[in-house]
Amino acid sequence: MTPTTAPAATLRATVLGRMAELLDRSPDPTGDEHARAFETELADRFGTAHAVAVSSGTAALHTALAAYNITAGDEVLVPGACVVMTIAAIRATGATPVLVDSPGGELDFDDLAAKTTARTKAVLPVHLAGRCADLARLTAYCADRGLRLIEDTCQAQGTAYDGRWAGTFGDAGCFSTKDGKLLWSGEGGYLLTDDAAFAARARSFATHGFLPAPAQPAGSRLGHNYRMPEPVAIIARANLARFDDLLALRREQTRHLLDAVADAPGLTPIEPGPRHDWNGYAPLLRVGLERPRDFCARLARRGVPNSVGTYGLTTADRLASLNDLALAPCPAARADLDTTLAVVVHEGHTPARLSEMARIITEEARQWR
């Protein structure tokens, strides 16, 4: 692998130089130079008309839903295989999340159709581990029914589907720049869109409603403080400038680990579909061993972080915090997540560290009973 497994000297110099300049003119409550520059650079990089920088991926999701006036009484269709942050954003608007079964990360279109009602206002696919649903079919489905398509692309930066960036198929794509994402800045997020009116409403919502938007005078609607802070924007801009290297590195890291566990019994790589140009977000393995969730938990205790064992990833209908919603079970999504080992990797993982994780995975698989 290339030596970019640690922050490069040029990244450090860029960030420290801009931070020093920022401190020289701080405190400035009106300062947004770097956040606005980040937006321009994002739109140029990913080929959209607009980008809106915000404080987190969850803020991006909430902002997108609110900017499309999704509110109490509305329903949002979301895959059963999703993270709690997606559901939290829907609930923050007052809308009701409706779970759609999602075997292998793909939305079940029969279940989707059965759960689309007069109250449905949007479909919100979640691109877990950088893998996408059938976005061409989903785009057509939403267009035929007048539904908003809002993509949760927090883990899919750099994934392309049918030659087009994930997060640019729908009305809006929502992204996170939390540590661990390919484009990281500690915390933060952004939205991509070609809808100018939406972008204006999103930017206003993320600034307490203070900014005017079409048919929305300044101060006419409540918003939130979801602005991206300038220090965060400085780091995000510096990493965006080297995004191609970060994307290539993550793919190399994932391939390194998958190759290194090739002899582990009961574990099979989950390859991306033919229409994916996958970002390699996490090495994905199908666990064919007994008690797969216990196996993932064992790996986490031995220092191999993973989605199930470390973060307890499961379908949303099994989350105690959502018991009041009585969400419909999603058996195919549950079976898929319960048997998926998604190893957490990040830019700081060296080849030696990846090899050590692979050794532990293989050792535990051979000893598992």
UniProtKB/TrEMBL annotation:
<keyword id="KW-0808">Transferase</keyword>
<comment type="similarity">
    <text>Belongs to the DegT/DnrJ/EryC1 family. L-glutamine:2-deoxy-scyllo-inosose/scyllo-inosose aminotransferase subfamily.</text>
</comment>
<dbReference type="InterPro" id="IPR015422">
    <property type="entry name" value="PyrdxlP-dep_Trfase_small"/>
</dbReference>
<dbReference type="Pfam" id="PF01041">
    <property type="entry name" value="DegT_DnrJ_EryC1"/>
</dbReference>
<dbReference type="InterPro" id="IPR015424">
    <property type="entry name" value="PyrdxlP-dep_Trfase"/>
</dbReference>
<keyword id="KW-0032">Aminotransferase</keyword>
<dbReference type="InterPro" id="IPR015421">
    <property type="entry name" value="PyrdxlP-dep_Trfase_major"/>
</dbReference>
<dbReference type="GO" id="GO:0008483">
    <property type="term" value="F:transaminase activity"/>
</dbReference>
<dbReference type="InterPro" id="IPR000653">
    <property type="entry name" value="DegT/StrS_aminotransferase"/>
</dbReference>
<protein>
    <submittedName>
        <fullName>Aminotransferase class I/II-fold pyridoxal phosphate-dependent enzyme</fullName>
    </submittedName>
</protein>
<keyword id="KW-0663">Pyridoxal phosphate</keyword>
